[in-house]
Structure formats: structure tokens, C-alpha cells
Amino acid sequence: MDNKILKALKQCPLFTDMSDMEIEMTLSAARYRIVEYDKKDVFALTGMPCQYADIVVSGTLICRMVGISGKQVEVSRLTEGDIVAPAFIFAQDNKMPVSVETDTKVSVLRMKPEVFMELMNNDPKLNLNFIRVLSDIDAFLTRKMKVLSLLTVREKVAYFLLEAAGKQGSLTVRIDQSRQEIADSFGIQKYSLLRVLSEMSANKAISIDGKTITILDRSKL
To answer: Among the entry's GO cellular component annotations, what is one (predicted)?
Structure first.
């Protein structure tokens, strides 16, 4: 197996607690292929059926939900090791609820659902890991719904900054997303985001230096 593929699979929660050899042996008899996409390609459109079990080998996919008015909300970003729409692979209604676009060049490892099912039937560890993946998705969506529907704009921005600080292990965080992308992820207008960041900076809750934001006083967020 190609080292790049193996590296991505080791990061995939489906293969948690499995050695390199176990992963290679598990996939040795499986029928899969590597599919390549260019930057800004349409990976999937809302309403399209989920026909494959795809695991991202390299690159970034952006999943967006689009309302009737055309308003977009960024639901998630998928990177190396992530499974694309795992909850819809075996769903009776397997129509994609989001549109998926490539943010960079992307490679995915692709299997048919029946091949994926056969792998899980032959490996209890793989089966348990997939159940955990689905459980984690449910927890993620519950948090996302709370953020989008219950929090004010200021609370959403504070949530974003504190979550980033927790992930990076520092009160000084590097924000790689553009301001528009951050706004889209919370379903708010860009000017609303900029206004709140400006207010937080003026209140000495944070300091902003380009793409770096330092949380000065958590209580003021």
C-alpha cells in the first residue's frame, strides 16, 4: 500500500487502535480505487445520493448547507483521514443534505457500500469504530445546532475563539480561515462578525494581529 494512503488511513477514526499491518491486511482483499479532484471541483450536490464510502487521502473538502434564499452555512471541513458522509452510506434515504466542494486538490479512497460492509462484517474492531464515528457525528450535530440556533452572534464568536484555543492549547490562536469563511460557518453576515471582533478588541477581551487572535480576558468574551 502507498505510504500516503496508509498515513491517511492511520488518521481515520475507522482504523483507530489498528496497526499498519492490520490496516494493510484489512484492505488487501478489498476492491477500492483512488479518485482525484481538482481545486474548486464539485464533489457532491445537495440531493445527490451517497453512492460510495469515501475516505479523504489528501486535501480539504468543504461541506455547505444552502437555504432557499441562497444563504450558505459551512457545516464542516473534511481533511486527511475523514470519512465523507458516513451516516448516509447505508441510509434508506441517502440523499446528501449538503453540497461538498473541494478547497484544494483532493484524493479519496473510494469503495462501494457493499465492499465497505463486507470489511466491517469481517472485522469486529472496524465495526465498533464505525459505530463510534456515527455516535460522534450525532454529538457534533447537536453542538452545531445549539450554536446556530440558540447563541447570539457574540456568543458564537466567543464559542469559536474558545474552541480554537482549546484545540491549539494556547490563548493565542492562529486562524487560517478567512473572515468570510468563519461567518459562513455560523450562518452570520461578515460585517456582524467584524463588528463583534472590533467590540471585543475595544473591550480588551482580545487582541488581533492579522490572522492571530489572543484572548486577553475570557470573562469579557
So the answer is: cytosol
Residues with Cβ within 8 Å of 117's Cβ and at least 6 positions away in sequence, in order, are 90
Q: Which residues contact 61 (CB under 8 A, 6 or more apart)?
A: 43, 77, 78, 79, 82, 84, 100, 101, 102, 103, 106
Q: Cβ(58)–Cβ(10) under 8 Å?
A: no
* Predicted confidence (pLDDT) at residue 68 exceeds the cutoff of 80: no
Predicted TM-score (pTM) above 0.90: no
Q: Is 120 helix (H, G, I), strand (E, B) or coil?
A: helix
Question: Whole-angstrom Cα distance, residue 116 to residue 135?
Answer: 18
Distance, CA of 215 to CA of 162 (rounded, Å): 8
What counts of helices (H) and strands (E) characterise the chain?
A: 7, 11
Other CB atoms within 10 Å distance of the CB of residue 70 = 6
Which pLDDT does position 10 carry in this prediction? 94
